[in-house]
Amino acid sequence: MGKEPVVVIGGTGFCGPYLVQQLIGQGYPVRVMSRRGAHGLDPWQREMLKGAEILRGDMSNRFDLTNAIEGAETVVHAASASKSRNSDVAIEQDIDINLKGTVSIIQAASACGAKRLVYLSSAGAIYGIGQDRPYSETDTCKPISSYGIVKLAAEAYITNLAPAHGLSPLITRISNPFGPGQTGADGQGIVAVFSRLIEKGQPVRVFGDGSAERDYITVEDAMRAVQELMDMGEEGIVNIASGKSHSIASILGMLEEVMGQTAERTYVDAARRADLGHVHINNDKMVARLGWKPDQEAKPYIQKYIDWMSKSVFAS
Length: 316
Known about the structure:
Oligomer: single chain
Distance between the termini: 45 Å
Mean pLDDT: 93
Structural class: alpha/beta
Shape: globular
């Protein structure tokens, strides 16, 4: 007997294609809905999404959602129309598209008879900063950006509204995923952004003194974890993290070693709040459920990432 279809809303971004690939590898029929559709894909996305049905649609459009979700058992909400770095200058848009879009997904999934809703949230944006010990799923969330606030509000709607609509919810709080597919062109991802600047010989802006620490997880490990949690029917909130943090300075140092170039640093004293302090993420629940630990050694995967960038981005 074949597995029930899965729909991934926003499946053409950075993380989505990896999850799609994992699901297809496990025998799931996968349908992807995104604003760009099949015609706006780059070669990397086309390769990663092989075997998936790709539809063009918007999560704010109920017809598009119904068309995508009809017949699916599980809906994965991986869509976001904003980035953490620019959400505070477009707060109304963040709410109108991302928060209202989440409610629309819940309603459409329920109306179409889906049974499960999986949300890709953000551990890096949800918890805030300032706690010395690693953040666990039961800690109080104090997001400091509109991006994080809207993510937390979306979680609240899913936690409370989804079950009332007959949907089993799984919320995965992902730390800072990195890997091939993230080009840095949109200003997202410290590994991607820094590598582009180093390759071009341009100064690397470091907010603060570079000591701020974050949890970084390979995108492959992150999406493997999400897929396996889905497969076992996990519910509730689960942190998806490596369990090991690296400072901005150490990430930059590893990039210099791998690329064989020395970066020109520009330190910005007036650091953004989001770049201050440490954010350590507890992954005990994830490890207990899955029985394996993500790779904590960042440098080998940074090498893999730079190899991909050299072939796909730097060479163009």
